[in-house]
Recover the amino acids of this structure.
């Protein structure tokens, strides 16, 4: 009954932590493509090739359902994968859907015309590749009208977090928030559009100000996954053993992962 969780690096551990707490009976297999991280500076074809290879490895591990806990992969590769690559008996889901549902307060399957929502000025912090894809704006436009989205590409932030350099990461967050505010002085809401960024959520909130509602994905994804599995119990895969796989150096990745989650994490070579 295993479910796969994929990220280019360690940011997806924020999602894994939330889904594991929500669904403690489910064995999750986590795949970190640390050798090729970060994805945010790669082009769409490269991201697609790496994401399909990682997803295929999770299928081999007995996961019929894989969560792309990576906004860059979700933005640049997911639609192409769903349209022509994913086998009919498998499913690959991204992390955009729960976020769009929360922001628009409507279910994904609601195909009624776009309508006004509670917020009109939204700041999006994401990797350069996610910003280039405009995937968030595209999906939001299907469901909401009158929403101004200002995107800020947060270059260097994923690298700093992966290296555990939180002093640099904090400085980068404040710099990127300042850059965003020069373009949109008074955002009402902010989207942390990378699963690494919840590790810096308090810094984002402090830099943005208490009046800005910050949307982080981990708990939204956990609630959405629980609902999906209730409706599609056939998507539990045959795998029974949880685990952590990486294309990077297992000892180094394990060390950083243990620091992130503050519990012992042991990766093995993928």
């Amino acid at each position: 009954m295993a479910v796969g969780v994929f990220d280019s690096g360690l940011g997806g551990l924020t999602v894994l932590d939330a889904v594991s707490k929500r669904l403690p009976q489910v064995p999750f297999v986590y795949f970190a493509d640390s050798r090729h991280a970060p994805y945010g500076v790669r082009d769409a074809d490269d991201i697609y090739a790496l994401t399909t290879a990682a997803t295929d490895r999770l299928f081999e591990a007995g996961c019929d359902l894989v969560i792309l806990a990576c906004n860059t992969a979700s933005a640049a590769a997911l639609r192409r994968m769903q349209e022509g690559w994913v086998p009919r008996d498998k499913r690959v889901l991204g992390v955009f859907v729960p976020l769009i549902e929360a922001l628009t307060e409507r279910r994904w399957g609601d195909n009624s015309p776009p309508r006004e929502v509670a917020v009109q000025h939204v700041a999006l912090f994401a990797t350069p590749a996610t910003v280039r894809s405009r995937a968030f704006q595209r999906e939001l436009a299907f469901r909401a009208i009158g929403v101004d989205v200002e995107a800020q590409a947060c270059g260097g932030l994923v690298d700093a977090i992966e290296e555990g350099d939180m002093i640099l990461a904090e400085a980068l967050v404040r710099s990127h928030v300042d850059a965003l505010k020069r373009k949109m002085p008074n955002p009402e809401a902010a989207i942390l559009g990378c699963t690494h960024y919840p590790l810096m959520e308090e810094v984002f909130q402090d830099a943005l100000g208490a009046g800005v509602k910050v949307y982080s994905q981990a708990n939204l994804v956990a609630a959405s996954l629980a609902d999906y599995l209730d409706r599609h119990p056939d998507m539990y895969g045959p795998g029974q053993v949880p685990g952590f796989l990486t294309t990077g150096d297992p000892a180094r990745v394990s060390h950083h992962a243990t620091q992130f989650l503050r519990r012992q994490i042991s990766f093995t070579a993928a």
Notes: The chain has a mean pLDDT of 92. The longest strand covers residues 121-126.
